[in-house]
Amino acid sequence: MLFMLHIDLTVPHHFTPEQTNDLRQRENAHALELIQQGTLLRIWRVVGTHSNYSLWSASTLEVLHATLAGLPMFPYLKIQVNPLIDHPLATACTSAA
Amino acid sequence: MLFMLHIDLTVPHHFTPEQTNDLRQRENAHALELIQQGTLLRIWRVVGTHSNYSLWSASTLEVLHATLAGLPMFPYLKIQVNPLIDHPLATACTSAA
Amino acid sequence: MLFMLHIDLTVPHHFTPEQTNDLRQRENAHALELIQQGTLLRIWRVVGTHSNYSLWSASTLEVLHATLAGLPMFPYLKIQVNPLIDHPLATACTSAA
Amino acid sequence: MLFMLHIDLTVPHHFTPEQTNDLRQRENAHALELIQQGTLLRIWRVVGTHSNYSLWSASTLEVLHATLAGLPMFPYLKIQVNPLIDHPLATACTSAA
Amino acid sequence: MLFMLHIDLTVPHHFTPEQTNDLRQRENAHALELIQQGTLLRIWRVVGTHSNYSLWSASTLEVLHATLAGLPMFPYLKIQVNPLIDHPLATACTSAA
Amino acid sequence: MLFMLHIDLTVPHHFTPEQTNDLRQRENAHALELIQQGTLLRIWRVVGTHSNYSLWSASTLEVLHATLAGLPMFPYLKIQVNPLIDHPLATACTSAA
Amino acid sequence: MLFMLHIDLTVPHHFTPEQTNDLRQRENAHALELIQQGTLLRIWRVVGTHSNYSLWSASTLEVLHATLAGLPMFPYLKIQVNPLIDHPLATACTSAA
Amino acid sequence: MLFMLHIDLTVPHHFTPEQTNDLRQRENAHALELIQQGTLLRIWRVVGTHSNYSLWSASTLEVLHATLAGLPMFPYLKIQVNPLIDHPLATACTSAA
Amino acid sequence: MLFMLHIDLTVPHHFTPEQTNDLRQRENAHALELIQQGTLLRIWRVVGTHSNYSLWSASTLEVLHATLAGLPMFPYLKIQVNPLIDHPLATACTSAA
Amino acid sequence: MLFMLHIDLTVPHHFTPEQTNDLRQRENAHALELIQQGTLLRIWRVVGTHSNYSLWSASTLEVLHATLAGLPMFPYLKIQVNPLIDHPLATACTSAA
Asked: Are the C-beta atoms of residues D79 and D68 closer than 8 Å to each other?
């Protein structure tokens, strides 16, 4: 199953640069594992913002939630989950790629 | 350049089923051409809605606008254009794919 | 998989009472089939409104979308899909029931 | 009487992990009692968020308010209360279950 | 049980003055019955608008919904239902009245 | 003149329980005086929230503002003031009461 | 008593220019009477819009509502009523004028 | 040129009463000067709120901005600037006053 | 004086293509005059939408309003007027150009 | 490529005047470089607010994002990026200038 997520990050203003950097490094390391597992398929940054769009694959909703709740930045994220299906034109996209 | 679009379709209620079907067929034929040209890269339907997310590639903003304005359904679409860049983790995504 | 849907119905004002009644009967007959298939688990009306909450089970997102898009009232519905997982307290709920 | 609640939790960022854990444990213990009393009928977590939907039964509005105001997390909750009635199709749901 | 309702009326622009008057008369006659039954306790118009606040008493949510759905203007109303309980100061209000 | 007020209370999270209790006691004592003066006619709590609806009588807008600005909780309140007139059906309400 | 009103006008698109002109002339004639009575004190147009701000004086809320409901354009207006009191600096304004 | 401003004040909760009073006194003294200069023409408080409407005259936009940015409370204000022109009925208002 | 306008166009769905084209041609001819007069300084289309940003110069607010109200498309436009002043860095922009 | 940005600045209330001044100076120095590079073309302040509109040129979306993320005030900015194309009337604007 596919999900498009829109994620907004709000790092608390009272964080020191060290805390922010540490959080970011742990987040990236964790995300890298999710990519290698095939859970996090793609991720794009929205220009000029602290937001991103990302495409996730998960076999169940329980797996998706556990994955997101395990992100080091989870307490600071606002996540919108859009369940997706292939558009009727999706096959054409794949064969064109 | 990459763009994530969120598109909502509102077909006027007074359309006959024939008008709706005709519009839909012309839209799909047009979209197919855009896929084959490499302009429309991916398209997903949001479950339970008349909305979709789609990923577009365009060499210039002029090309992107002309492409969207040329869609047969353009007068009935509400389009939100999100300019994207690769997330620092994008390379990992590609090599994992 | 479970989904909580919030659905708003807007019947066009120009519908005749006969059209509205016919639509309603076809919708109910269709919903009854979905209940018997175990797809539509529960449905509640929000007091004083034309909205309802409903709990759905679907094996895949494709099945869920096809089911919703097949509703006779689909063109007149605004559907919000909330993917759900069991809360840690869910087992207690079930054993208390 | 039935009520569908949508609850958003915002734990203050200055809470220590110990304070958060303690709050969570007291909330869960309290919720367990409400389940055993038949007040809290069902509870689902919305995937990827700190929100949940829950179905409550209360004999009066006074009982419902007193129950919610007694939750240890009440000062940190944003609660939307939707009064519900059975949908005309509810009987079919129950007999199908 | 008490409920505060905020109701917005939108009469379709294509109604003739006769249709509007007829609707208004049937609505008022119906509301008068609800007042005499003790269901509709108080009603106030919000200055300068087509909205009103009203205070309702109903023994069950089913009765409240059936009452509202039976209003001749129901298809043209946007109703927000606020379940109420007495404020701790309510007794003082009553004895002061 | 009558006014329906919708009031939301947000006690700052850094308040100690003693500060909150003290504030609440002063607010209630003050409100009690307003009830006895016939300024605050009725007050209802919205179930599950920190909000209330209340009905006020004031001879002038200056009196109403001075009364509200004098509430001990005024700095923490978000107040929406709805000027009301009797609905054409109001007489029926009163005679039915 | 003083009130600041923000009024948005939406003339239905299906009106003929004659209907629109006729409505506008009746509205202006009516407003002129209200000005001469001292009810409508000032009126300003918001640049580039179909909205205006206006300052009204009314001895009671009933008079204000009856006045607004009597405007020929009332069915096409969205009116926001802001009850006002003199700011502590108002006297300085008047004596400076 | 005329401008209608809607201004919301949010004094930070951590201000001491002394800080708030001092700020208020400096704001009032400054506003008084602006009144005497003919820049701030009228000011009204919105009943029950920390907001006000005010009417300003400025020969240029630069003067208006410099004036507002010079207010001691400027960092705590949310200002909405509505450029105004005289309504066609304005002359009648003036001659009636 | 400078103003940044954000304009949304909504052509009614019942317009024929001829009506739409005629409207568009008259709008463009009119806009061309405004450009030649130095009133409309710049205009940009927002990619993928029926909206545009435009920069206007007007000696008074009356001139600006009369100009906008004279646009053939004015009844179908939603216009947001932002009064602007030069940013402290504006001189650097000009000399860099 | 052209982009219209709407930027809102929220300096944290706990900043000392020295911190705010230092931030502002670094921001201005940085913006000056961007102007000299031809990246930041124009910038206007919205009257009475802490917001501005600005026109940017960037050869790629990556360059635009890197530029914005490098602003000293970036953590305190809310940026809305509007991709622009020339309006059909743009040539007339340029030749009129």
From this structure: yes
Q: Who contacts C84 (Cβ-Cβ below 8 Å, separation ≥6)? A: A61, C2, C3, C4, D44, D45, D46, D47, D53
DSSP notation for A5-22:
EEEEE---TT--HHHHHH
Minimal Cβ distance to G12: which of E13, E48, E49: E13
Lookup: tokens for G27: 């509205």
Task: Find, in chain J, the residue whose alpha carbon is nearest to that of B2.
Answer: J61
Per residue in G27-36, pLDDT (tens digit) is 999 999 999 9
Contact of J53 with J44, CB cutoff 8 Å: yes
CA distances to F7, I24, I33, I66, I79 from I71, rounded to whole Å, are 44, 11, 11, 9, 12
- CA count, 13 A, side-chain hemisphere, E39: 19
Query: Which chain G residues touch F84 with a CB distance below 8 Å?
Result: 61
Give, for D51, the enclosing helix (H) or strand (E): strand D51-57
**Phi, psi at residue J57, to the nearest 5°?**
-120, 135
Burial I33-51 (b: 16+ CB within 10 A, else e): ebbeeebbbbbbbbbbbbb
Which pLDDT tens digits describe chain J residue by residue (97 residues)? 999 999 999 988 788 889 999 999 999 999 999 999 999 999 999 999 999 999 999 999 999 999 999 999 999 999 999 999 998 888 888 777 6
Chains with 3+ CB–CB pairs under 8 A to D are: A, C, E, F
CA distance D73 to A36: 38
Which residues have a Cβ under 8 Å from the Cβ of H78 and sit 6 or more positions away? H7, H8, H10
